[in-house]
Amino acid sequence: MTERPLELPGFAHLYSGKVRDLYSPLGSDGQPRQDQVLLVASDRLSAFDFVLQTPIPDKGAVLTQLSLWWFERLEDLIPHHVVSTEVPDAVAGRAVLVERLDMLPVECVARAYLTGGGLREYQTDGLVSGVRLPDGLVDGSRLPEPVFTPSTKAPGGEHDQPMSYEQVVAEIGADRAADVADLTRRILQRGNDIAVDRGVIIADTKVEFGMRADGHVVLADEVLTPDSSRFWPADQWQPGRTQPSFDKEFVREWLTSSESGWDKASGQEPPALPEHVVEKTRAKYVEAYERLTGRSFG
Question: Do 85 and 106 lie in a common domain?
Fold first, then answer.
């Protein structure tokens, strides 16, 4: 799906990813600044490495506002990249002005519960990203403690691949690997410490880190959102089955159902989402935001 980027006065379009658009603020000389980026969250949704034809209304605003809420609650663990929430009216509520960082070339993932790709790995040899897990775990099992299960950052259209810790060390160095592994686990643990009192389990999460010029690690992109994490209603958690969720797993399940008529293995683009799936997905994102923050959305 192609979508023309917005024209934003005072900003130059840099790049459009699957679900975000990046702009550079223009300096007084009319040239793009090199120290800041406007990060705009769109309503696009990706699944199975495809950008779906059908946007989810308000998704970008939910992810942006929830990330800002979490950044405040993680500040004592790690600094974040947000410079300002003063943004052009056309993207108000779904954009932030952030530091331009040197992003680490590793998808930093932590798991507190076993499901999804981690479960499939575990069922093969009892390992997830080279980490040995206890015997007898099932879909939805809680792990003794959060584990760091990184993956590659694949180019567009390709699948991320699990990485061992040794591969992360080879990619970014031993000290930095130790830092981001610890931070990723602590962010997930902090998230669950807060979420559990609000009736939400955060099963796993993906975190993005960047480097400042002085070598400091900074939390970037989004954090603990329904796009980067699996959110489950705590009162319905039942190991041994697929868990109900507040995230885009609902869309993945519809796409692989007989109703969609899509064959995941075909390589063909997924079909448009029907209205009832769009409405329910939006409702799940909004409910996740409202449960966690205690605020009304909109």
Answer: no
Name the residue among 117, 102, 101 with its Cα closest to residue 172.
Answer: 102
The pair of structure tokens assigned to 36 is 């800041």
Number of domains in the chain: 2
Q: Distance between alpha carbon 293 and the CA centroid of its chain, in Å?
A: 18
Any domain includes 74 = yes
Q: Is residue 95 part of a domain?
A: yes
pLDDT of 1 strictly over 50: no
With H, G, I as helix, E, B as strand and everything else as coil, classify residue 292.
Answer: helix
Please report whether residue 270 resides in a domain. no
Question: 274 near 255, Cβ under 8 Å?
Answer: no
pLDDT by residue (tens digit) across 241-296? Answer: 999 998 888 899 999 999 999 999 998 999 999 999 999 999 999 999 999 999 99
pTM of the model: 0.94
Whether 107 and 246 map to the same domain: the answer is yes
Rounded to an integer, what distance in angstroms lies between the CA atom of residue 164 and that of residue 178?
A: 13
Return the SS3 of 117: helix
Structure tokens at 290: 């409202």
Q: Is 142 helix (H, G, I), strand (E, B) or coil?
A: strand
Q: Are residues 166 and 194 in the same domain?
A: yes
